[in-house]
Amino acid sequence: MAAPDDAGFAEFVSGSWRQLRQAAVALTGNSADAEDLLQTVLARTYARWPRVARDDAVAYVRRGLVNAYVDTWRRHRVMKVEAVEEVPEVASHDTPGRTDDRAELVDLLARLSPRERTMLVMRHYFDQSEQDVATAMGCSVGTVKSTCSRALQRLRIPVSTTEEL
Amino acid sequence: MTNELFKAEVDRIDSGLPDHPDLTSYMRSGRAIRRRRRGAVALGAGALAAAVVTPAVLWGGGPATQPAKDPAPSSVAPAASAPAPVDASFGDGVTAAVAEGFPDAAFLDKTVGDHYEKSGIGVEPALGTPPDWANVFFWRQGYAVDGLQFFDTRASWDGAAAPAAGCSSTAFEVEQQCTTTDVNGYTVVVHDGVHVQGEPEGDWARLVQVVAPISERGNTQVTEVMAQVEGMSWAEAESALPDIDRMRTLALDERLRLPEPATIPELR
């Protein structure tokens, strides 16, 4: 017999699964860590579901993803892949701002530092303000701007003029 | 524009993860988290309350009727006439008792212990493979009850040197009321309006403990029923939590009482 709140949790996770899954991969840069991250955050979400459901479940899970990931890389202090300053040249794209294939973006994301990926996802995938990202990451708005700008450059995603430094 | 481009790129990633979430796994882990939180609550009720409660208050009979407490560690030697051991069907009896008092309760999970296992920074009761039924000293079952964050029952045995349950101003960070009464030789302790230190603001619990007289072998048995709500003021929680009488009736139900184990593991 299912618990009374299970149906709501299942509906929420199923409905937002695609976005959560993609965000987790963008944060961690690889599938294995993304899977672990989702397991951690969604288990915590379920444990508090009656309250989470009453508030803003989407915001709770997004915050949970970022916090859990930041906790992980701050605790370990070991980056699997160091950020690189130079991105290998690739053939030109048919559509500006789009990578050639899906695997390529994962490779490019993996070359970013965890901090860069976190800021990018918060700012450009979760649509959080630069101020909110700065507060969460304990840095200035200027640092958020410059970090995101450089990270986007490495991903070959154009920065719109209003967001350029 | 940047956001849309970035989102489009991220959404195109081949994540390598399944198309559908593993809900069962998340829920199982989530229930384990709830259990751990519940464990912290129980420790607050037992260990801290024991610091100041007197045996006379707990056992009702006064010092003259108190069996002598063994100051030795909580490990208890097997008795010559050990009772019949519990088995897996014990949980069915608990669920039947719960269903009578709380018809909408849905069984979620259980934790059974015949020994302690390390878990994080502490220890948790765990069941061996195969189970050592003669030494089962802990049995907890969780239920989903509409409107509650959690609801569970637990029965446990401990050695004579273990902290006793009772009312104490140091038991919880916040406790609206605590009462102790004698019912048919049992001491019933009702902790009401409990907020556990470290839990989010708005979490309120009601905990009923039934303390049995010390056994002939000097062990103590406590049976508990606990309900918790979240995100409320105490005034809201007071009416949202199950009625104390219903919880007390359940806690006193013989089906919740665990047979005395042959031995009780030391809690180091």
What report would you give on this structure?
The complex is a heterodimer of chains A (165) and B (268). By secondary structure, chain A is an all-alpha fold. Chain A has two domains: 1-78, Rna Polymerase Sigma Factor, Chain: A, CATH 1.10.1740; 83-165, Orthogonal Bundle (Arc Repressor Mutant, subunit A). Chain A contains eight helices and no strands. Chain B has 268 residues and is an alpha+beta fold. Chain B is 26% helix and 27% strand. In chain B, strands 1-4-5-9-8-7-6 form a seven-stranded antiparallel sheet. A two-stranded antiparallel sheet of chain B has the order 2-3. Residues 47-82 of chain B have low confidence and may be disordered. Classes of the chains: A mainly alpha (165), B alpha+beta (268). Chains A and B meet through helix 1, helix 2, helix 3, helix 5 and helix 6 of A and helix 1, helix 2 and strand 1 of B.
What topology does this entry show?
The complex is a heterodimer of chains A (165) and B (268).
Chain A: H1 6-28, H2 31-47, H3 49-54, H4 57-76, H5 102-111, H6 114-125, H7 130-137, H8 141-155
Helix pairs in contact in A: 1-2, 1-4, 1-6, 2-4, 4-6, 6-8, 7-8
Chain B: H1 2-12, H2 23-48, H3 55-59, H4 90-101, E1 106-113, E2 115-119, E3 122-126, E4 138-144, E5 150-158, E6 174-183, E7 186-195, E8 204-211, E9 220-229, H5 234-240, H6 244-251
Antiparallel strand pairs in B: 1-4, 2-3, 4-5, 5-9, 6-7, 7-8, 8-9
Helix amount of chain A, in percent? 55-70%
Quote the beta fraction of chain B.
25-35%
Domain tally of chain B: 1
Q: Report the mean per-residue pLDDT of chain A as an integer.
A: 76
Please give the largest β-sheet of chain B. Answer: 7 strands, antiparallel
Topology of chain A as a string of helices (H) and strands (E): HHHHHHHH
Annotated CATH architecture of the largest domain in chain A: Orthogonal Bundle
As a percent range, the share of helical residues of chain B equals 25-40%
- Which pair of chains has the greatest number of interface residues, and how are they split between the two chains? A-B, 55 and 43 residues
Terminal-residue CA separation of chain B: 60 Å
Q: Which stretches of chain B are low in confidence, meaning pLDDT under 50 for 5 or more residues running?
A: 47-82
Order of helices and strands of chain B: HHHHEEEEEEEEEHH
Shape of chain A: globular
The count of β-strands of chain B is 9
Strand content of chain A: under 5%
Q: Could you tell me the number of beta strands of chain A?
A: 0
Mean pLDDT of chain B: 77
Low-confidence stretches of chain A: 77-99, 161-165
Structural class of chain A: mainly alpha
Strand order of the largest sheet of chain B: 1-4-5-9-8-7-6
Keywords (chain B): Membrane, Transmembrane, Transmembrane helix
Transmembrane segments (chain B): 40-61
Biased composition (Low complexity) (chain B): 67-83
Region (Disordered) (chain B): 64-83
